[in-house]
Automatic annotation (TrEMBL):
Protein's name according to its UniProt entry: LanC-like protein GCR2
Residues that bind Zn(2+): 286, 331-332
GO molecular function: metal ion binding
Keyword Lyase belongs to the record: no
Length: 413
């Protein structure tokens, strides 16, 4: 397993009041560039990460937009041009640079043209994401006509086929997330409760239908497997359902599903990638403890249940010990895993989790050029994308400027 991640040899968190112990820990490795980064005051480190984020953003735009001749071959947020637009929107939020907003809008328009005939309907991998981001950017730009055009497309053109799966990347949960994104940024009932409610009922009904053979209240299949993770399985679906208006019995189904997952995790504290899997290898957002941890944080926020908080903290320990992956992106890399600590810090206010997020970001910053040059991306074919490559690292660094507001891109609400 260790070939998947670097050993975490960074010093544990030491409160600022114990400066002598902290100074000693840094002095022992004073020649180590990572230790020097960790020893910086937070404001100084934030400015350094911001500078890196801006440099990485320029690199991503050049590689994915400039060198392509401004043509879109992959329009998705996950690995395509819309991910570059989403990164530009994040940069605009962090710096208020109007040029980022204008370029973001230009790329979204190109993605709109490229995705018109697509049957995909989700936020991360479908036309719904194009319309949702386009509408939000148009609102920020004060372009009412463009805002209305994207909203009309979303409401009238996007249809959910009967055989659509239920997971986050390609299924009904992913469509609901696009609805939530619009309602957060445009207005509460931009996508009506009635439309969202119909999809929620379909998801709950399907989950119960497959669960009758299991002890878990809700269960889903994707490509023949009962996945547990955030991208294709229970963690992602439960996360989205918790952002919807649920009936009391549906709330209990969600809680029961999460409790089933907690009860059946590995002895290590990690989570199986799918039902019945005995392979305790993956510690990614898409499969394993990181994605489940983000969902458990959401459950602790929504339900106020200590059981979910404790399970989230336990999953965070797995990520601290095994989460320094040998890739840089959101889905399969260090960038995505860092959001576990940002979410725990946002939930608890415990500065130890901010330190851990900072430590992962420093490790990534320190090793970035080497990892990039070695092609440490998932599959290597989208090295500058948001979820699989350098774009995710830039997005994370922007979020480190305001860590108490940070949200994983798939769960930006």
């Amino acid at each position: 397993m260790a070939d998947r991640y670097f050993p975490n040899e960074m010093p544990p968190y030491l409160p600022e009041t114990t400066t002598a112990a902290s100074d000693e820990a840094v002095t022992e490795t004073s020649k180590d560039s990572l230790a020097k980064l960790l020893s910086l005051p937070y404001y100084t480190l934030s400015e350094r990460l911001k500078t890196s984020a801006l440099e990485l953003k320029r690199m991503v735009v050049m590689e994915t937009w400039g060198l392509s001749g401004k043509r879109v071959h992959d329009y998705t947020i996950y690995t395509g041009a819309l991910g570059t637009a989403y990164l530009l929107f994040k940069a605009y939020q962090a710096t208020n640079n109007e040029n980022d907003l204008k370029l973001c809008s230009e790329i979204v328009k190109a993605c709109d043209s490229a995705s018109r005939d697509s049957g995909r309907v989700t936020f991360i991998c479908g036309h719904a994401g194009v319309c949702a981001l386009g509408a939000v950017v148009a609102k920020h730009a004060g372009d009412e006509r463009l805002l209305d055009r994207y909203l009309t497309q979303f409401k009238e053109k996007i249809k959910l086929p009967s055989d659509l799966p239920y997971e986050l990347l390609y299924g009904r949960a992913g469509f609901l997330w696009a609805c939530s994104f619009l309602n957060k940024h445009i207005g509460k009932e931009t996508i009506s409760t009635a439309r969202r409610r119909a999809v929620v009922e379909e998801i709950i009904k399907a989950g119960k239908r497959l669960a009758h053979r299991d002890k878990c209240p809700l269960m889903y299949e994707w490509h023949g497997k009962k996945y547990w993770g955030a991208a294709h399985g229970l963690a992602g679906i439960m996360h989205v359902l918790m952002d919807m208006e649920l009936k009391p019995n549906e709330i209990e189904d969600v809680k029961g599903t999460l409790r089933y997952m907690i009860k059946n995790r590995f002895p290590s504290g990690n989570y199986p990638s799918s039902e019945g899997s005995e392979s305790d290898r993956l510690v990614h957002w898409c499969h394993g403890a990181p994605g489940v941890a983000l969902t458990l944080v959401k459950a602790a926020e929504v339900f106020g249940d200590h059981e979910f908080l404790q399970a989230a903290l336990d999953a965070g320990e797995v990520v601290w010990n095994r989460g320094l992956l040998k890739r840089v992106g959101m889905c399969h890399g260090i960038s995505g895993n860092t959001y576990v600590f940002l979410s725990l810090y946002r939930l608890t206010g415990n500065v130890e989790y901010l330190y851990r997020a900072r430590a992962f970001a420093c490790f990534l910053h320190d090793r970035a050029q080497k990892l990039i040059s070695e092609g440490k991306m998932h599959g290597g074919d989208r090295p500058y994308s948001l979820f699989e490559g350098v774009g995710g690292m830039a997005y994370l660094f922007f979020d480190m400027i305001e860590p108490s507001e940070a949200r994983f891109p798939a769960y930006e609400l």
